[in-house]
Amino acid sequence: MSIIYNKGGDRILSLQEPQKPQLYRDIFPYTSICRTAFDNVLLAPCPAEQMRITDTTFRDGQQARPPYTVKQVAKIFDFLHRLGGKTGLITASEFFLYSARDRKCVDVCRARGYRFPRVTSWIRATRDDLKLAHDMEFDETGMLTSVSDYHIFLKLGKTRQQAMDMYLDLARQALEWGIIPRCHFEDVTRADIYGFCLPFAQKLMELAQQSGMPVKIRLCDTMGYGVPYPGAALPRSVQRIVRTFIDEAGVPSQWLEWHGHNDFHKVLVNGVTAWLYGCGSINSTLFGFGERTGNTPLEALLIEYVSLTGDDAAADTTVLNEVAEYFEKELNYRIPFNYPFVGRDFNATSAGVHADGLVKNEEIYNIFDTEHLLGRPVPIIITDKTGRAGVAYWINSNLHLEGKAAISKKHPAVGQIYDSIMRTYEETGRTTHFSHEEMTELVQRFMPELYATEFDRMKQLAGELAANLILRLAKSTELSGLDKQACTRMDVFSKEYPFIQYLYLTDTQGSLKCAAITDPAYRKKYEALPIGYDFSQREWFKVPMQTGDLHIMDVYQSQFTNKLIITVSCAVTDENDQIIGVLGGDIQIEQLLKRASALKQEEKQGHGDEDL
Known about the structure:
This protein has 21 helices and 16 strands. It is of the alpha/beta class. An 8-stranded parallel β-barrel has the order 3-4-5-6-7-8-9-10, surrounded by 7 helices. Strands 11, 12, 13, 14, 15 and 16 form a 6-stranded antiparallel sheet that branches. The radius of gyration is 28 Å and the shape is globular. It starts with a strand and ends in a 7-residue tail after the last helix.
């Protein structure tokens, strides 16, 4: 074996134009698990002078969940700034631009005035999309530039030369408009590195030199095929990919970024490997959210960065627990209990940590001082030595009860739970601690009021499903005229989703302009609400007019149909994001939930996707 570090290779980087696509069937047989090839070339680590983190929580991360509201995006953006934006460790966050809500999210985050993370955009490789970025005055945008023959030949139906020419034309136009292009080399770990990727990268560097502006490259491990192993061969070797772009195509480290996926459980180690071999930035999402298996977890990169550099001040890791609580409470996302750093049980052991506050040998089992670094004390373990104080502590910490909501050890139900625990030890001779599941069962039995009911969860799900539908309809350009065309669009939409019992559109004064009734049996009752009816004092109208955002009311019984319904409304805006009306819908809960799975699938398919 040989250890090679080659600065400035002598290979001729010319485009190779095969008649058939190079699919590397020896490495990617498809009917078998992909193969890892080795060619015994070893590279010495050569980290970039500055290793940085970029974020795609609002782009790739949002493809794995229902869309965030504007308010939620703003809150999460604040978290990113506090986590590592203040120091410049988290340098940028990228956004979609396609809907009015996308654009409002951009405006709200820009208005924060943070130096970092910088607000950047993501577009498809079209001139219309680039114009959208230009009109919104972005100084940097990512653009989809697929590089594997799987995409060039089989998806785009182009030759390599045609694909390269299309990408270069778009990059050239971006530079002319003063926009830094960030070319996303999608599916790079299945691409012909020397036959297409490096010649393309070299052409981009020529454009950068001519324009005097950076041209960035994001290396997208779209399918998670990358491997970090020394001696692994191209195109799967993360080390070799990074070094060839730097050493042979002349891409500066600070212009190079790695975007990984976790299909083979390697997303973090591949990202860190890219760092160690010169890649300036690693793209990530909070908690690894992302389509399919997800992206590199941002919180893991923060910890790894501090571990590699010793720069404890680069990130405020105590914010992570706050972010996790927000995701669970506000976004209703259940973080796996054993998830590193923020999972409920990640630092819990049965090592004898008791409620009397004495932490015996905590360091033996705890990875570091989690209370100091993460704001997370070692969770209490319930045993026969815990006492009533320990039971109350367990309830408050696990159910996140604070202030006036916190439970006292004097609470009668705490005494009942404690007595039940002690009887178990006395009657059975038990020697093991009570598990989280056992404690949850006891608390639910004696304090059921602390837990959300099935009805609460049903309302939450119904609200999310209904919101997605109304937001989707509100994007329709036909609604902008508040006229006959709008009424026709609403009629068609209501017939597609007949569980919407009443759909209505007002102008900015609350005057009814259009309405759709799905069940003719109730048409006469709805005649009490004729065109022109004044809804200006209704909650569903006033809130969107005040906030420009979505509004979801609580479940109630319809006075027209006697069915349980949920009312969802949102502002309708024009091309300049000015509110021109309010769209609302009364949706029958039972019928909506019967179509829950199908609606979730529709919503998932409706997102844009870099990797599709």
